[in-house]
Design brief:
Blueprint lengths: L14 H4 L8 E4 L7 H11 L11 E7 L7 H9 L2 E12 L9 H10 L3 E7 L4 E7 L2 H6 L1
Parallel strand pairs: 1-2, 2-3
Antiparallel strand pairs: 3-5, 4-5
Length: 145
C-alpha cells in the first residue's frame, strides 16, 4: 500500500492537507523567527514550494502568520494580511500553545479577528508548541469585492 500525495502511510492527514495547501498555491509567511515550527514549514514548502515574504507583490492563496504575545498590534497585523489575499484566501494565525512563552489567549483572537474583517472558522494543532486559527473573510464581504 502506498501513500497518496500529502498523506502519511498510516492514513493520517499530513499538516499540508490539514492546512488546505495544494501544489502551486502562493503562501505568504509573516512573523518568522527562530522559534517557529520547522516541521510545519517543511511540510508546507514541500507541498507548495517556497513561502513568499510580506514584501511580495503577488496575490496569495494563504497567509501563515506566526504571532506571539508582545509581537505588536494583532489587529494591524491581520489587516495587513488582507491586501495580498485572494478572494477565497485563508489566513492561518499561529500562536504558541498555552503554557508556552508568548501564548495568546483565544479570546483575544476571537475579539480582534472580526474587527479586522476576518472570521475564525476552526483551530488545529499545528505542532508541539503551536496552535493555528483558520481565518477567512466573511462571504458577504467577498461578494462585495
Amino acid at each position: 500500500m502506498s501513500a497518496t500525495a500529502g498523506q502519511a502511510a498510516d492514513g493520517v492527514r499530513s499538516l499540508a492537507d490539514r492546512f488546505g495547501i495544494e501544489p502551486g498555491m502562493v503562501v505568504m509567511e509573516m512573523g518568522y523567527d527562530e522559534d517557529v515550527d520547522q516541521d510545519l514549514r517543511d511540510a508546507l514548502t514541500d507541498r507548495c514550494g517556497e513561502l513568499v515574504d510580506e514584501d511580495t507583490d503577488e496575490v496569495v492563496d494563504a497567509v501563515l502568520v506566526w504571532y506571539r504575545d508582545g509581537d505588536g498590534d494583532l489587529f494591524e497585523l491581520l489587516v495587513e494580511t488582507l491586501t495580498p489575499l485572494a478572494d477565497n484566501g485563508v489566513v492561518w494565525l499561529l500562536t504558541p500553545k498555552a503554557g508556552r512563552p508568548g501564548h495568546v489567549e483565544p479570546s483575544e483572537i476571537s475579539e480582534v479577528a472580526p474587527t479586522a474583517g476576518l472570521q475564525q472558522t476552526s483551530t488545529l494543532n499545528a505542532g508541539k508548541d503551536w496552535s493555528a486559527a483558520r481565518l477567512v473573510t466573511p462571504r458577504a464581504a467577498r461578494s462585495k469585492k
